Amino acid sequence: MNGYYLDTAGQADLLALLAQIPDVVDALAGVLCDGFPQRISYEPRVSSSPAARIPYDTSAHDAANYLDNELWTWANHVCEHRRQRYEGPASTIGMADWLRKHIISLAMTPGADEAPHAFRRIIRSARRAARMSGEPEMWRYGSIDAARDTELNASGIALAAKELGPEYAKLTRERVKSLRRTGRITPVREYDGIPIYRLGDVLDAHCATATRQREKVSA
Question: Residue 201: which residues within 8 A CB-CB, separation 6 or more?
Fold first, then answer.
């Protein structure tokens, strides 16, 4: 693996996960801090008397601690392998940013192949505790490379395309349907009869078709 314990795809996956952390920390703070504006929750409301009220949500407190410990464990692991002291920020967001900046060092550290799974588990737990959706829009948290394996319906792809750059501006819901009708893309599965596509497949087909159309016009 040329000295890498975490390959390029794994690095992109981990970067996308680490990029979620500022939003997760902010949401956890909202649950923990008294008087913070109420956030949407799909859990049933439970009324209680003022005397029975607790100052914060214990699951959010635990999730924040687990997230902090996971970040410190990996940052310390990288430093030990490189025989150096950790001199980065002590905050949760600061440690996440440090790991993103040192992603190559982490990728070359033994055991790094376990990092994406470890962070995905911790972040999912933290998102639940913070009353956030279980799975974020991955294209918001990483590069196009990190988003390519995301599986979306036509509407979701059209929404993602608006944020992925000007070359995808014309990748609308109808464009996705047209690409399927002409056999340029195939759904990877269906959900309640709705076709689901791999985002990377649709991006490639969209660009390839546009290129061929430009070549015909120039000819």
Answer: 185, 186, 188
